[in-house]
Design brief:
Elements: H1 3-17, H2 35-54, H3 58-78, H4 87-94, H5 96-108, H6 111-131
Helix pairs in contact: 2-3, 2-6, 3-4, 3-5, 5-6
Length: 157
Amino acid sequence: MSRASAAAVAAVVMLATFEAGSEPAAPPGPYSPGIAEIMIMTQIRHAKLWLAGEARNWPLADYEIDEIKEGFEDVVQYFPVYKDMPVGKMIEATIMAPIEDVEKAIKARDHAKFVSTFDKLTQACNSCHQAANRAFIVIQRPATSTFPNQSFAPKRD
């Protein structure tokens, strides 16, 4: 088929799909992430939190735990029930206290406390996944960095 013929066919198809005088379709509304997108970002931030804490980069660790907390707050607000599970209440009951403990360890710049509270947060994540019938999602400490383009070392002034 020649280019001219292909263009003519495309024009006819386009014209056939529009009615004379019809209004154009409304643009889609603003993007709203689903719970899976929020949880994937939470998993990324969980890994970065560990790497920052291990490097004793307390400002970065503080940033990451705050972002994790905000992500969970979004889930509580926008997905209080997901697939008949009270996810919002589960997060409030299971996850928020361990997040506060990690925040305290970071503010104290206490590496040993950070490790222990990070592990408790990770266990809480897995407990929540099990309770939500998502036991196949198992979170753990990252073994290595998957962020070769980011240094986790504390900035030296």
